[in-house]
Amino acid sequence: MIELKNLSKNFDKKVAVNNLSLKMEAGKITMLIGPSGCGKTTTLKMINRLIDSTEGDILIDDKSIYDLDAVTLRRSIGYVIQETGLFPHMNVFDNIAVVPRLLKWNERKIQDRVEELLELVTLDTSYIHKYPLQLSGGESQRVGLARALAADPNILLMDEPFGAIDPINRAKLHESFISIQEKLGKTIVFVTHDINEAIKLGDKLAILHNGELIQHDDVTNILYDPENEFVEQLLGHDRNIKALVLKKNRDYIVNEGFLKVRRSDKPENIQAAIENSNSNRAMAVSRKGCFEGIFVLELSKRTGRPRLTLIDDAITVEKNNNLQETLSLMIEAGEAQLPVVGPHMEFLGVINLKDIFNEFRGQDR
Ligand SMILES: Nc1ncnc2c1ncn2[C@@H]1O[C@H](COP(=O)(O)OP(=O)(O)OP(=O)(O)O)[C@@H](O)[C@H]1O
Ligand SMILES: [Mg+2]
Q1: Which residues does 31 contact at the CB level (< 8 Å), separation at least 6?
Q2: Which of 4, 38, 47, 160 to mutate to test the pocket of ligand 1 (most atoms within 8 A of CB)?
Q3: CATH number of 2-247: 3.90.1150.10, 3.20.20.80, 3.20.110.10, 3.40.50.300?
Q4: How much is the pTM?
């Protein structure tokens, strides 16, 4: 655990951090978020003693960092910074190997470790010989993360690590980051400007304003119960929609209230079943339980008579997607119900728009 105790930092007359007390749980991701200049970077740099505090203390596992040797402390904490992080004159291998070499590991062990880390951040070993200038923004950040993890520190400090990456690559980095953290369970302090990133990645949010802590809590609690207007504004008017990111499809799957047929059933039987139901559609599911499409009964524009069609490329969602993604797909597709499938197209049930709406109602407490 990292504990900030009445921590303050003044630069001459400027108060950058003001009496900040905060406990950051081991194995969790704490997101520091707030407007530019609110003291996020200063706080991060005090944790690894790149900056010394003016007042207060920082404890790591109950020991004051000021009782530790600053260099040893820094080597035991991984630090990822935005953009400029990599040494331009060193290739990827040497960049990742910086701390292990300082720790005097033997070359064999370093080689193995670099390869292991590249795999972890999903870069293949051909990257070893590349120089930072030959990497895309996303690749550089992956190397930066690998370098921070090189000596397997318990703590990782990350200062807007994905800030300069385009949205698509940023989403990919987020996925990798989440799965890396699931494996490693590091204690992470992550600075961001971006509330969506904070909600997606954080276990806890610590919201700062003018060097002071405004609110520190689970992401869900903050979304449902913002401390004050400042936090509300930071979360945005669509905070109810943002909260859907935290809900997984798997908890909203229902297995009733819809028709299920086989693709090979006789069309007239399918049509009759649909006509007898209060819907205009039926899920086609194979004998082995795989989703095969949706039969829809509509009036033909040309003849005015009912016509049965099978949509075999129907939009589906996966059980591990979140409700926000599902809601976007529903809006895009104009569907109030989407089938949920497993990794091999196993049919798991459906999600209904009305259940997502009920989520909103539940939030207006
Ligand atoms: N070395 C310094 N000398 C003087 N003032 C500084 C110094 N470093 C930071 N500050 C000031 O302290 C305040 C907090 O800076 P800090 O870099 O921690 O902000 P931040 O929250 O990380 O902002 P950003 O989101 O823009 O990165 C700012 O007002 C900044 O101008
Ligand atoms: Mg900063």
Answers
A1: 190, 191, 192, 197, 198, 201, 202, 204, 205, 206
A2: 38
A3: 3.40.50.300
A4: 0.78
